[in-house]
Design goal:
- There is one protein chain.
- It is built from one helix and 27 strands.
- By secondary structure, the protein is an all-beta fold.
- The protein has an eight-stranded mixed β-sheet with strand order 3-4-5-6-2-27-26-25, with no helix packed on it.
- Strand 22 and strand 23 form a beta hairpin.
- The longest helix has 6 residues.
- The two termini are 21 Å apart.
Amino acid sequence: MLLLSLSCGGPDDGGGTDTDGTSVVGLFEGLFDDVVTGFNFPFDIAIAPGKALEDQETEGEDDPAYDDLIAPGVIVVANYGTSELMLAGDPTGGSGGAATPLLDGTAEGLMGATAVAITPDRFVWATFEQGGVDGNGGIAILDPDGALVQVIDGGVDAMAFANPGGICFGGATDDGNGALVDSFVFVINLGDGTAWRIDADDTAGANPVVTRVGTGLARGTPGSPGSPGNGITTSSELPQGGARGCAFHEGNLYVADAQNARIVRFDGAHDDGEITGVALEDTPAELVTYPTDVTVNDEGFLIVISYDNAHAFVTLELPGGGFVDNGLHDLNVNAGNYGTAVAFETIWFTRANNKNGSLRAVTPDQSHPPGTYEPFPPQ
């Protein structure tokens, strides 16, 4: 039995050069503007794990995964303004692409898509800020073909849903026959500042059991999300404050604590509950001003994105959060950076600064277009 989790090697683990190349953000000189457009206040993003098709073919493999809608390399975006999940259409072709709808949350009684995660076998888990049982939000789970599997909401445990603003994959176990079982994900509630773990029989969320990981995170107020064809027009309709994105690494949960201007670590989040969270001890306070998302790259570094800072990205060592030299990149953009994810030599991020938000990317230089393939940890 093999445990698959977001647990990556550090810079001295002898892993060689086969890394995602995103640690030294300060050396990234290739800013690709508006790689994908057609969003309305896009929040979080997730990339379906896997290698490029040509690499599979080179190795003599015939993987049916590439016939799925959520094929390896596909980007899914939580589009808050229209309460949709959207696909980033062909973002790596150099000329950009247009977003296309994947799931209308309002058709399932869910409003305000806030965050998205994709498991190693490409099931999509997405949080919605409002709707569901009691109206306090829920999670939509889609299979690799893009079909809705189920909605998890307050019907499982009313206390576990208080306007969720973040979600991240934790891990799962390979049963030896190619199926992933005993999976777990984490959900962050912006409404009451709590973090929760959802354990399930599989990555489709069968028989979910919720556990409160901890409290004490930033609290916020829900926004006023729109619907397909009737998006919102101003940032005043977005949620205000509250903890947001998260990432899991080597047993610990890391949370972007928004207006508290810190990253909070919950030690032992895989196994325990009611943990006292701690701010990363070694992070210079001036570098994390209003974090909205975090991601872990293949080298085991934490990349933080701040909404209100032109120095959008900070790279931190884990678990203490020490600043990595050259790990700060001035993108020369205004406030509004929101969600982030990594792929090989590429950092993807959303711009949620206006009703015409976009998906952008940075690479070490502009010698190649942004990529969406491994190595990177599922999250």
